[in-house]
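Example (one chain per record):
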Amino acid sequence: MIDPQELLITLAEAEAGHTGRHLTVVGELDLSTSNALIDQVSALVDGGATLVVLDLSGASFIDSSGLRALIGLGQLLSSGGGRLVIDGMSPAAQKLLEITGLLEQFRP
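Predicted structure:
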């Protein structure tokens, strides 16, 4: 069982020649864990990733810090001509993105 204070991030292997990466996020994306996501995605961008696909279907909770991380990472990728896409959302993630009007920005 995952400690709710921990964020589990798994990275799917990219196919040869592709610059996209797929991350699965499980747990609470909040003040204590959002920096782990920022660090992981920033490292991917530094490594040449131009598309990052997040699966948030396992995200049980997202607070304003998590939302700020998603927005900042979206901006980071778009500033380099890339994109952050959220493909797979928990009810909590979908509700938050709908309420904030950001759902369409992160759709595939």
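Caption: The beta strands are 7-12, 20-29, 51-62, 83-89.
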